[in-house]
Amino acid sequence: MSCARLLFFYYYYTYIDMSSTSTLKVGIVGASGYAGEDLARLIIGHPGVELAVVTSRQYDGKEFGSVYPRFAQFPKIQGLKFTNPEPEEIKSQVDLVFLAVPHGVATEYARPLLNAGIRVIDLSADFRLKSAAVYQDYYGAEHSDPELLEKSVYGLPERNREAIRKAQLVACPGCYPTSILIPTLPLLERKLIRPDTIIANSLSGVSGAGRKVALDFLFVECNESMRAYGVPRHRHISEIEQEMNGVISGEQKACIQFIPHLIPVSRGIHTTLYLDPNPALGSGDQFDEKAFLSSVESAWKEAYVNDPFVRVLNQFDDNRLPDTKNVLQSQFIDIAWKWDPRTQRLLGFSVIDNLTRGTSGQAVQCMNLMLGLDETMGLF
Amino acid sequence: MSCARLLFFYYYYTYIDMSSTSTLKVGIVGASGYAGEDLARLIIGHPGVELAVVTSRQYDGKEFGSVYPRFAQFPKIQGLKFTNPEPEEIKSQVDLVFLAVPHGVATEYARPLLNAGIRVIDLSADFRLKSAAVYQDYYGAEHSDPELLEKSVYGLPERNREAIRKAQLVACPGCYPTSILIPTLPLLERKLIRPDTIIANSLSGVSGAGRKVALDFLFVECNESMRAYGVPRHRHISEIEQEMNGVISGEQKACIQFIPHLIPVSRGIHTTLYLDPNPALGSGDQFDEKAFLSSVESAWKEAYVNDPFVRVLNQFDDNRLPDTKNVLQSQFIDIAWKWDPRTQRLLGFSVIDNLTRGTSGQAVQCMNLMLGLDETMGLF
Amino acid sequence: MSCARLLFFYYYYTYIDMSSTSTLKVGIVGASGYAGEDLARLIIGHPGVELAVVTSRQYDGKEFGSVYPRFAQFPKIQGLKFTNPEPEEIKSQVDLVFLAVPHGVATEYARPLLNAGIRVIDLSADFRLKSAAVYQDYYGAEHSDPELLEKSVYGLPERNREAIRKAQLVACPGCYPTSILIPTLPLLERKLIRPDTIIANSLSGVSGAGRKVALDFLFVECNESMRAYGVPRHRHISEIEQEMNGVISGEQKACIQFIPHLIPVSRGIHTTLYLDPNPALGSGDQFDEKAFLSSVESAWKEAYVNDPFVRVLNQFDDNRLPDTKNVLQSQFIDIAWKWDPRTQRLLGFSVIDNLTRGTSGQAVQCMNLMLGLDETMGLF
Amino acid sequence: MSCARLLFFYYYYTYIDMSSTSTLKVGIVGASGYAGEDLARLIIGHPGVELAVVTSRQYDGKEFGSVYPRFAQFPKIQGLKFTNPEPEEIKSQVDLVFLAVPHGVATEYARPLLNAGIRVIDLSADFRLKSAAVYQDYYGAEHSDPELLEKSVYGLPERNREAIRKAQLVACPGCYPTSILIPTLPLLERKLIRPDTIIANSLSGVSGAGRKVALDFLFVECNESMRAYGVPRHRHISEIEQEMNGVISGEQKACIQFIPHLIPVSRGIHTTLYLDPNPALGSGDQFDEKAFLSSVESAWKEAYVNDPFVRVLNQFDDNRLPDTKNVLQSQFIDIAWKWDPRTQRLLGFSVIDNLTRGTSGQAVQCMNLMLGLDETMGLF
Lengths: 380, 380, 380, 380
What we know:
Radius of gyration of chain A: 22 Å
Oligomer: homotetramer
Low-confidence stretches of chain A: 1-21
Largest sheet of chain A: 7 strands, parallel
């Protein structure tokens, strides 16, 4: 065995032995839903951090592995129990906290944690919007801590890497917005497509509805069923348009038509985008199709050349379209485009795992950035 | 027991006893796929016709119930065996024949059957298009009997009831076209929507791919998977545009953007339609939203008030959106619309069973019309 | 058109026209679960009876088709609304009532309905057991009307045809018991197998759990999951052993090992039976394998030769094993056996649709018998 | 940041940088099926080995990530291409080879690789049986290299840890045998149960059939379907009985009744075991139920107290039964038992992921042992 390998193993085990005293420590507040469970999966498998605190009112005192049978007997969480601590207590125990509680509730936790000097990554919708008015408009309630809206950073690593590194409060993007913004932002930024006629037709697995015990999400109601919902004004529209408007200038505003559908799979989002070329590029004979498509190709390439988790399928094979099964439990987003010469429309496709890339994986990538770890650690 | 009831039962049994000699008789050519199987289901349960002939090269001589275990021991098909007859032989045995063979093959069978005086309902794509040139363009092969294209009637009962009654050759519409044409034709006819910006985003169960033994349709490849396919120029676009152009006049032509997706359900199609109001109705302040929506409502009501299998969900409940599970194994098409005031777009939704309404049920409704039976017989 | 056919159509329409005044009328009490819904499907499609009353406290006053979207616009139930009547009121409206309420509740309804002279078919477990003590032992509560236990008839048509015809109160068998009793009773009756070592390993679709809104039955919890439950003493054991003991005489008693499993399908039960030949037939060299198997074959043949809904697959093909997909939405039970010469065990297999054959279809077959209709009416 | 952490990160990155020159290297022969794909998933995520060679005749020359889209852009396999080398060439490239080819084919590869001094882990059935006669009996063909049967080690880590460490050729157990042997061997060894009346009723996901393109495994054929197969003499019986006989002494031999069923999930095996207490422990009043159950508990505890991947659910909660969803993509096997006082039978339950614990994970655990790595490396 080579010297380097020996050294590696020496430190591999050293690391494990010392993990309880010196690793970075994180906590999850409210880990009883599907997003919280998937986040736990990633943190437990992460070589650079330790899951030190999991809080829950409901499960206070119970072993983590007894509440989540799939994690029973995992060496890295032996003895880990749910607690229900005050923010002050958490402060001494962790370097960073994930909030995996419903929107509305996250606001209650964020302020005291931040005040205690703990960095926070919120998985809910509470800190994604910059405008308290838009929040109220879409979420139907006054925002209880609008000051934090200014301080929070929208946690889309491909777009806000530097801001995330320094952030005290990161708001993880919604699952649908992630699948829509990654393919469209580079095109909007370069004025290649119209911002006011974008149509996003999305399909989501049932875990997107959370672990809510409701008739609509029973196996028999979902199996062999396909249906649209949240029409015409799903809440995610607010953050999609906010982020789009952030990259376009001038008088035009983004206006997105977004229709989600419930599909009988556990995980996955598939988004189909109908995009019109920017009229400023000319129409009819004036429109240079070849130049446009070349710009589209460059736009994605330039935007994501250094992003480990964006796969532009056209670079592998022009006929391959994204399939959700290829991104399940991963941080990847697979995107592809096709041009339709008949309709003169650019068709975009993206797939993600709504729980991982759409929530927990995104949160871990943000955490890696915030803690100065390798951005991809624990995500391959 | 009342006299009427007694009489009923007398003739109920009389009917059964005499069924082998006097009922209308039909045959199915090529019944080995999912559409053929579903058609057999409907014919066997139909009180007015008898399944007298099933042909198959592959199964020649085998009992129908041994090839399709679900039909074993059905009294109405006791002893029915697959045969492989010449058209002349079929002539003496049936009043009408269904062709359930792949496109390209249907043409071979249709001419000799028609020549023999047998009425034909074709489930393939061979006789849906009026133009041999469009056929060649979309199906990649010269049509081998273009003369029949003129004679065939497009078998959408809600639109072509009278023509179907008299037809010798009916071409059953494709499954996707059915889900798209029913909601859009009344709107196009009344000039309520633009014909050149229609977007149809469709989701289909795996039986839509037929009983094809291919890697892509294995359980493990489809389960927990969602993917688009046939982009950007699925063959069904040809018949959709043909039928749309048939109801609009003037210079404008239908131009449809159609993207189908494969979803892990066995049966069902869900179509989401993105529709722009006709610009002639005015835009901005000029556009009378209320009047427009009232016209939409009337258009569907007028168009389908006498159609037993079209359910306009808005008439029941304005918040109900179609769900494929409510139409499985039925001839119903459930449709609904929503208006989006933000985007000024009319959103349409429809669901069908791709095998029943999309193929076999449609064929049976056409058969009922052709044979002078009650249009709904065997379909409830 | 032949004379006979004309007459048929005359009475076909006559029948429909007069259906509201002269057909037999039935009611369903408590039709809000999956079994009630499937029963409604069969009654609506039944040519000999009319669904005249549907009662529900929850839905009192609502249209049937608005509560069950799949039945909206069905001609035969136009205008049918849920009511919440007293038994006396129901008396004048129906010839027979189905109780589709949970066990424990059925007892409340049965007595007043029977007192009012209405024949009752109960789908719950309340009247299946002859012994109030066994009921209390398995269902954990005292039976509130033990007198009715004596009067009720166990509604397995293949076994109790004559008794069902005359019964005032029929208790439909449980779904699992149906799948287990049909294949085993003829073998027990003929002393071919040991009654005290029977093992029944059953798999059930999720609809078997009813429309209960509970975490365990959410799509995400059931999908990609397989698990046993109700171990070791599922309630259905009580009726299985009661019926088995009814066909064996002497000192030996049936003792069944029964383990059900939850499988991610909506419908279907698959039962695998492990059966030991009766030791009285000899063992080792004394045991005449060939004679035994011939007796097994005859036993099933004799028992079910006149039963339209029992399919013995060995009669079609010795290598075919039952598959639930072939019996979905039907009244069929497919059974097959294999002999294992290594273990000297008889292996039995059966499949049913837990909702149809396991509940609603069984109820309709009983109804046909009770009302003097053809036994199979409405079931093919 | 602490010193230890700094050191860790130093070597974490050092390790990555040097991985191409000094890590242990492995190859996969024939990686085009589901087992091969899952093995690649584990190897790519493994911190101690590098996937240096993937061979395939079909894909020779293609990028690994283009054949398996889910692995596209994984840093650790950048540039990895399928090759089709001679054994001699492989020798210089890897420390160990996995054979993921069908049974019958594995024999062709094993001998030249072993001759070249390469250690081999075979995932097929070719080297599991010690007797060439039994192989021929169950697999229907003469074994082409019976000498290797003696040299191979049955790769069940919990049973053969030391032998695996030293083995040149490891035969990974079948998926069903793994789920059956882990719970039963400790009981047989301690003479707690009868070896000749064991019944194993197993349920498997469709990936167990491999990536075989056959009608039976199409989505529509498997969805909403449950069926038994391989009755009465599935090939896995041979290795199950061989391993059982290895732990029991005396005249009695294991005789197992094993019936597998195909269930519409992608992954997972659920096994239900019907076990009779050893008659030597007494029967009737002589049988000490309490002592027996205490011995069962101890047997499992003693057998697996040091095994990281066996979870005895009774130790967590006596009412919890195994659910396949808790072991998906993991090396865990969850087992539980229940006693049935009515039937005096011990009921056993186990769940595994048929691909991971049933194939690829088992292979990786064996590899870890063979290469002197931590046994659990890459498996949590």
